[in-house]
Amino acid sequence: MSRKSGSLELLDMDPNHFGKDTYRSETKSLNLGKAQDSNTWGKSSPSKSYCSSSSTSTENVVSTLERKKAQTSTEPGTLNRPDDLPLLHGEKVTGQARDVTYLCPYQGPARGTLTVTNYKLYFRSADKDLSNIIDVPLGVVSRIEKVGGASSRGENAYGIEIFCKDMRNLRFAHKQENHSRRTVFEKLQMFAFPLSFKLKLFAFEYQEVFSENGWAVYEPIAELKRMGVNNDMWKITKFNENYNICDSYPAVWAIPAQATDEDIQVVCSFRSRGRLPVLSWIHPESQATITRCAQPLVGVSGKRCREDEHYIQLIMDANAQSHKMIIMDARPTANAIANKAKGGGYESEDAYQHAELVFLDIHNIHVMRESLRKLKELCYPNIDETKWLSGLESTYWLKHIKCILAGAVRIVDKVENHKTSVLVHCSDGWDRTAQLTALSMVMLDPYYRTIRGFEVLVEKEWLSFGHKFQQRVGHGDDHHSDADRSPVFLQFVDCVWQITQQFPNAFEFNEHFLITILDHLYSCRFGTFLFNSERERAIEKVKENTVSLWSYTNSNLDLHRNPLYWANIKQERVLVPVASIRHIKLWKAYYCRWNPSMRTQDPVYQRIRELLKLKEQLQHTAAEYRKEQQQRINSGNRGSHVSPT
Asked: In which element (H, E) is residue 281 found?
């Protein structure tokens, strides 16, 4: 059997395959009551049964494609053998248990073989009719618990429960006489949390070669030059080349041209974590800018820093279209005031002349983490139809999404309509600040609405500017209750999805592209989202030793293209979504995708394939008609210049 699972091409798939495998669980009748009765852990476990369905219209299409490619040299029908599973480059089997029962809340229990590799958990049911396949990267595992003990009685009362970061949980029952639980539990712990066992993340083992090099997608100087920097008012500097000025900032910045190295050092000392204001985006016509930083260290005594005030004035002066500046503080007012007691705070309008301070009322990482926890409880495993809307409201998730989007819209309004520069910060400038600057740039610049442009945006505003992915996601460690964990980047992607729903023709990428990014945010298959800063990734030699997620996505562009995308110079350049709770929707294809009753039942990727082909044909036909029309015009012009005989 071929162990290779490489880049995937949707166009190579047999269209009939989708209905046979990927959507099988959706076409079966769901006897939820029976499933729940048979899934209970017995009297020894009072907790509810939480498990995952076997496939999704997004995730499982791709995993099915990967399995198909990995099995291309295998005889028909051998996939049904439990030992057959697709392995990636660098992936190896570490343990296997037979006669394990997967407890699904939708289809009931399924008995089969559970395999643990250094990358994933893989379960295949022995029942050919059910065709249950669970393929879960261990990076998405948040915690693992044993359920039941030696005295447990009752069917399926003894086993393992796995809590995941991607809105699902899994339960597997083991037979006590097989003594398989201990080995599986130990292997899962070891490879789901390798850093806690002094092991390497799987990304450092995975060495597949793709046709595209994703590490070449983002080059900071090239991106700044695309925006027109250097110019009279802004300059590119490598002052932080060794990361000794600010260890969480990138090596390359764009700062006001008049700023000196001495100014920079003083301003860094007055900003939290040394994160001084630097350029994120510049308007191609008005030269109004979006800059980002961390809070000033004013404290309860109201300290001032003349160099910081002068530096903000330089940013303001760089925009000749306006004589004022807006400082957007992402925090609620009360939180910003409370930060003064910790030595932080916000800019005084008395100290910063011609600056207007606006609080955007976006809550902190702890509030967002709790909101997502409530949303998961609402969506998984079962949904109470009678209390769906009130339950959704009680999570406050959509309210938080609305607040983030509304903040970005306010930034866009100031920059585009008022031609005024905006400085954005929160407390440390790596969470809410990144959400706001990146969303504003998506709305203002069509480039970031292309596939490669969006990848550049993520690399620039999130990765290079030090969003703490390691701490927020918890890659490879078992500290599931860590207070630093929070769905900050998930909220950003959710907001982007909200904009795509209001402007379906404006984005080159589709929903699957966004879900792929989120899946590999957790998976630890690629090096893109590992560690907390550019400096840490340089020390760990991530570019040299791991594969970029963009290598995978850019080698499979047809999987990620939006067939409705209209790239035209007449297209609306600036997008201003309606940031109203009446227009904000729950992203069911992501949050509810494990529930067969909530996800789409149409073979959507086959339809996208057809639409892309149709779009290509129509574009070719239109080009031929334009060419023919131009030839007629040219022929007519030549005829009108012929002298009469």
From this structure: strand 278-282
pTM of the model: 0.86
Question: How far is 115 from 120, CA to CA, in rounded Å?
Answer: 8
Q: Which residues pair with 100 in a beta bridge?
A: 112
**CA gap 468, 488 in Å, rounded:** 10
Higher pLDDT, residue 153 or 125: 125
Give dist(CA 120, CA 103) in Å, integer. 18
Q: Which secondary-structure segment (H or E) carries 108?
A: strand 108-117
pLDDT at 50 over 70: no
Catalytic residue, chosen from 51, 104, 403, 426, is 426
Q: What residue has token string 């990304």?
A: 203
Mean pLDDT of 487-493: 98
The model's confidence at residue 640, banded by pLDDT at 50, 70 and 90, is low
Q: How many CA atoms does the CB half-sphere of 248 hold within 13 Å?
A: 21
136-167 residues labelled b (16+ CB within 10 A) or e (exposed): bbbbbbbbbeebbeeebeeebbbbbbbbbbbb
Q: Look at residue 114 and give its three-state secondary structure.
A: strand
Distance CA 101, CA 172 (A): 5
Residues 605 and 34: their CA atoms lie apart, in Å, by: 32
Determine the angle formed by the axes of helices 397-412 and 432-444, rounding to 10 degrees. 60
Question: Which 8-state DSSP code applies to residue 464?
Answer: I
Scored b (16 or more CB within 10 A) or e, 628-643 reads eeeeeeeeeeeeeeee
Strand partners, 237: 253
| C-alpha dist (Å) from residue 291 to 78, 216, 325, 388, 403 | 57, 25, 11, 40, 20
Say if residues 58 and 4 touch (Cβ distance below 8 Å).
no
- Count of alpha carbons within 13 Å of 53, Cβ hemisphere only? 29
Query: Could you tell me the pLDDT band of residue 352, with boundaries at 50, 70 and 90?
Result: very high
Instruction: Give residue 397's Cα distance to chain centre.
Output: 17
Mean pLDDT value across the chain: 87
Question: For residue 502, how far is the Cα from the chain centroid?
Answer: 19
147: which strand partners? Answer: 159
Burial status of residue 20 (CB atoms within 10 A of its CB: 0-12, 13-18, 19 or more): exposed
Q: pLDDT at position 67, please?
A: 52
What distance in Å separates the CA atoms of residue 263 and residue 265, rounded to the nearest whole number? 6
Side-chain half-sphere of 609: how many Cα atoms within 13 Å?
A: 15
| Annotation marks residue 426 as catalytic | yes
Q: What is the DSSP string of 332-401?
A: -HHHHHHHHTTT-----TTTSTTEEEEE-----HHHHHHHHHHHHHHHSS---GGGHHHHHHHH-HHHHH
Distances (CA, A) of 351 to 303, 315, 334, 347: 10, 15, 20, 7
Residue among 137, 6, 127, 125 nearest 68 (CA): 6
Extract the tokens encoding 549.
Answer: 């997620």
Q: Is 243 helix (H, G, I), strand (E, B) or coil?
A: coil
Q: What is the DSSP letter of 553?
A: H
Q: Tell me, what's the pLDDT at 634?
A: 87
> What residue type is 342 in one-letter code?
K
Residue 174 carries which DSSP code? -
For 439-455, how does the pLDDT look when each residue is reduced to its tens digit (9 = 90+)? 999 999 999 999 999 99
Contact 475, 529 (CB under 8 A): yes
